[in-house]
């Protein structure tokens, strides 16, 4: 998220689950934590019970989270940005701004250069034919001293604050009501409660999940709330923050470790074709400070990168070969995300697919396209403890998977793996805590640990390259593989590898006689990493997790020394065991806490001290160095410069499939103007003339994704696929409670039982009644639960412009009464 800094960009919490107890106002928007994160939601109830905190829930459905809210606000899915920009306007108009924080800790005073403009939903530099921007005008006015121009009085019409004020002026309460379907009085009540937390002794926390990310402008959904939190002074403080609620026990770890097509571990970037050498690659990643005295911590990028290369290739990575820079593949596209991959597969350009711990046939959009794509492969390998729909995509299950098995020539190889309860290792939760766990049982049958399988594949591939050579075998032949058992690296070995170690004696740069780390020992943390090849580190943000003090992830000291939920002795929180990132922002320019009752750190005259690890150089003077050390400005960004695809300020863009005819603020713009849409998928985008109802997807407490339908207990608790509609829509369409309905889009059709409920109500948007159809996602054609479908049979093949996360939360459907589906000709024997 470019508002706060690069390491936060993939959705970690700024704070922690336990810190939510310190809030005065919890806003759940883009999530349903009482149902999807019930154990974490207890911290909201703690805040309500012990601090008198209030809870606002903003959601298209009256969820279980909404049922315990102090204020529930219905909203049309896909309109969150309009709502939040309306709140920002409200705060500006009503002087509900934490002014000292905004002026000193955000880029509000920085001056944007001439040439930057915004009109009719588009910023300067847009090229419609490329669906992309020339971002050269999205920059600051740089003075002769090389620093960005600044106006601390906020009088300059080109300063960020005044440009933002003009930008949000259209989002009046009346416009918010028109776009979102939110009654004006409900909006104003929510805005007023949020605005109250601009007082330094008040805190608001934002809790969000896939309800924000799964949109074609999902990144900007999150960024808009981050901007609001900055204006209110709620980032870096106890009880505040931007708190992404991850939907899986190690999804945070997945992104941290670089399992995204464009990333390496620790949010380092895979080079692109236009970066043929290391010098070019590093030149755009060290971020020279844009204001005097600022740290711009990414200036340490070479240390992180070289240490990673040494971890990967050891002695083969040398200064002479640019630390094996040529071993890294270079991207010819910005990323090979799941949508890009299946598009290439659909074109016949990918012939083999390795699918580890994933079920794309239910997890990606437009299931018909997915089936066609998988059918064009020569081979498919799945690694999973369960028999997934992806593994059985070729198998006919009647209406539930109506394929011509004989015509599908894809060879499918299923490799059974272990589940979490049979494994040892670290899991990273939403709050960035690396928690070590141990196996509770042994794997059944032929199931093997993922490490065993991957090691076996690698060792066989390496032997093939040794025997047969290849165009460039060096990266495979020279890969570091110094494990006690090369056939199954142990979790502790891997953890020590990502912590990092000294490859030579490391001396204090300020005192060459002082030995910091002896060769072969674990480094303390990433502050000891070097760019000269004398350190190795598999993931710099995890450095400190397994150092010479031992496995810090296995710590279980639940002492709460400050009584404010820090729990610094429990597990390890990246980075460097810091529980609240940007915590320097919890203090004023003199280094004193905004709210002494919720103190995190403070300046004692010579250094920063407190109950958490300071997110700043310990001796950095508070009046000199800004709190957002990852950013070149030293501040957070209300104006994102060129770091977001669709613009430096958020804009309300309609979903690509909108239930209203056009965007009220930009009638000529369809969807996100910078989102990538493949030509064939454009043809499958519907309008509200044919598909008048707004579909959305969601999860249920009784199931976890597509796993628990294999468990008889869960299957009995929620046995059957259903869709949820309002009483008004049911009456309009002649649908009865418990009756069968057909729901269809331009991409597919499903049958489900109808749940007719008061939890969903029609909304009035731009003069049109909008009905919402809710579709849970836990059914398929394998497992113990009754057969069904997922919402991905209906959803469009389009994603967020920045992350490419598919737009599962807003799409168009139609609905009608129907009869029960034909039974599966190949039923599972244990079906409930």
Summarize the structure.
The chain is α/β, with parallel strands linked by helices and 832 residues long. α4 (80-93) packs across α8 (184-196).
What does this protein look like?
- By secondary structure, the protein is an alpha/beta fold.
- Helices cover 22% and strands 16% of the residues.
- The protein contains 22 helices and 33 strands.
- Strands 27-29-28-33-26-32 form a six-stranded mixed beta sheet. Strands 3-2-1-8-9 form a five-stranded parallel beta sheet, sandwiched between helices. The protein has a three-stranded parallel beta sheet with strand order 12-13-14, with no helix packed on it.
- A hairpin with a 4-residue loop joins β24 (601-603) and β25 (608-610).
- α4 runs parallel beside α10 (218-232).
- The longest helix is centred in the middle third of the chain and has 19 residues, at 450-468.
- The radius of gyration is 27 Å and the shape is globular.
- The two termini are 44 Å apart.
Structural class: alpha/beta
* Largest sheet: number of strands, sense, barrel closure: 6 strands, mixed
C-alpha geometry: globular
> How many H/I helical runs?
22
Give the low-confidence spans: 5-9
Average pLDDT over all residues: 96
Strand order of the largest sheet: 27-29-28-33-26-32
Alpha carbon gap, first and last residue: 44 Å
Alpha carbon gyration radius: 27 Å
Q: What share of residues are in beta strands? A: 15-25%
* Count of DSSP strands: 33
Helix content: 10-25%
């Amino acid at each position: 998220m470019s508002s706060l800094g690069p390491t936060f960009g993939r959705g970690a919490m700024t704070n922690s689950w336990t810190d939510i107890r310190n809030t005065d106002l919890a806003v759940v928007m883009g999530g349903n934590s009482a149902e999807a994160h019930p154990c974490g939601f207890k911290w909201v109830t703690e805040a309500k019970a012990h601090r008198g905190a209030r809870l606002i829930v903003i959601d298209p459905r009256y969820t279980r989270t909404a049922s315990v809210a102090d204020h529930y606000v219905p909203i049309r899915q896909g309109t969150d940005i309009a709502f939040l920009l309306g709140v920002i306007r409200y705060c500006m108009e009503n002087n509900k701004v934490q002014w000292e924080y905004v002026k000193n800790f955000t880029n509000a005073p920085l001056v944007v250069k001439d040439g930057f403009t915004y009109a009719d939903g588009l910023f300067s530099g847009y090229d419609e034919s490329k669906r992309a921007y020339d971002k050269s005008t999205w920059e600051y006015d740089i003075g002769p001293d090389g620093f960005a121009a600044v106006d601390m009085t906020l009088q300059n019409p080109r300063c960020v604050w005044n440009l933002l004020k003009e930008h949000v002026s259209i989002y009046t309460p009346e416009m918010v009501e028109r776009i979102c379907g939110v009654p004006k009085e409900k909006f104003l009540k929510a805005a007023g409660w949020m605005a109250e937390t601009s007082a330094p002794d008040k805190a608001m926390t934002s809790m969000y999940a896939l309800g924000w990310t799964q949109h074609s402008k999902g990144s900007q959904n999150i960024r808009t709330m981050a901007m609001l939190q900055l204006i209110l002074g709620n980032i870096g403080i106890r009880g505040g923050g931007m708190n992404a609620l991850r939907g899986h026990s190690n999804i945070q770890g997945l992104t941290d470790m670089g399992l995204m097509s464009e990333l390496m571990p620790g949010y380092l970037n895979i080079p692109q074709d236009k970066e043929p050498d290391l010098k070019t690659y590093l030149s755009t990643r060290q971020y020279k400070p844009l204001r005097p005295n600022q740290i711009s911590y990414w200036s340490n990028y070479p240390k992180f990168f070289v240490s990673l290369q040494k971890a990967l290739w050891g002695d083969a990575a040398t200064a002479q070969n640019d630390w094996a820079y040529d071993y890294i593949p270079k991207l010819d596209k910005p990323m090979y995300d799941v949508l890009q991959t299946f598009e290439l597969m659909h074109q016949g350009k990918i012939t083999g697919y390795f699918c580890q711990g994933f079920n794309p046939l239910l997890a990606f959009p437009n299931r018909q396209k997915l089936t066609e794509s998988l059918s064009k492969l020569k081979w498919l390998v799945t690694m999973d403890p369960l028999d997934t729909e992806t593994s059985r995509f070729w198998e006919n299950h009647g209406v539930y998977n109506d394929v011509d098995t004989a015509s599908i020539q894809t060879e499918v190889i299923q490799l059974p793996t272990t589940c979490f309860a049979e494994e040892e290792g670290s899991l990273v939760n939403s709050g960035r805590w690396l928690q070590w766990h141990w196996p509770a049982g042994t794997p059944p049958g032929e199931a093997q640990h993922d490490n065993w399988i991957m090691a076996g594949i690698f060792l066989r591939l390496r032997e093939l390259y040794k025997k047969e050579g290849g165009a460039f075998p060096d990266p495979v032949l020279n890969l570091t593989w110094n494990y006690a058992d090369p056939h199954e690296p142990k979790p502790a070995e891997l953890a020590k590898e990502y912590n990092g170690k000294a490859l030579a004696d490391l001396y204090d740069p300020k005192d060459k006689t002082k030995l910091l780390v002896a060769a072969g020992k674990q480094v303390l943390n990433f502050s000891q990493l070097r760019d000269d090849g004398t350190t190795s580190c598999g993931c710099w943000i995890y450095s400190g997790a397994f150092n010479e003090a031992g496995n810090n992830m296995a710590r279980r000291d639940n002492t709460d020394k400050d009584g404010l939920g820090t729990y610094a002795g429990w597990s390890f929180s990246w980075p460097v065991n810091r529980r609240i990132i940007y915590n320097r922002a919890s203090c004023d320019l003199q280094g004193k806490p905004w709210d002494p009752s919720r103190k995190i750190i403070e300046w004692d005259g010579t250094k920063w001290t407190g109950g958490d690890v300071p997110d700043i150089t310990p001796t950095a003077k508070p009046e000199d160095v800004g709190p957002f050390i990852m950013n070149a400005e030293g501040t957070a960004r209300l104006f994102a410069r060129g770091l977001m695809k669709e613009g430096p300020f958020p804009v309300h863009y309609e979903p690509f499939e909108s239930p209203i005819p056009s965007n009220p603020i930009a009638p000529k713009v369809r969807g996100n103007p910078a989102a990538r849409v493949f030509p064939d998928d454009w043809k499958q985008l519907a309008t509200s003339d044919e598909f008048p109802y707004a579909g959305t997807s969601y999860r249920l407490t009784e199931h976890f994704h597509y796993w628990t339908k294999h468990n008889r207990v869960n299957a009995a608790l929620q046995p059957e696929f259903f869709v949820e509609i309002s009483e008004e829509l049911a009456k309009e369409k002649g649908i009865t409670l418990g009756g069968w309905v057909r729901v269809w889009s331009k991409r597919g059709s499903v049958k489900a039982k109808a749940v007719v409920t008061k939890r969903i109500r029609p909304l009035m948007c731009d003069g049109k009644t909008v009905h919402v159809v809710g579709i849970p996602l836990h059914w398929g054609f394998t497992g113990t639960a009754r057969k069904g479908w997922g919402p991905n049979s209906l959803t469009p093949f389009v994603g967020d412009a920045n992350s490419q996360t598919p737009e599962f939360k807003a799409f168009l459907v139609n609905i009608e009464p129907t009869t029960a589906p034909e039974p599966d000709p190949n039923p599972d024997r244990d079906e409930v």
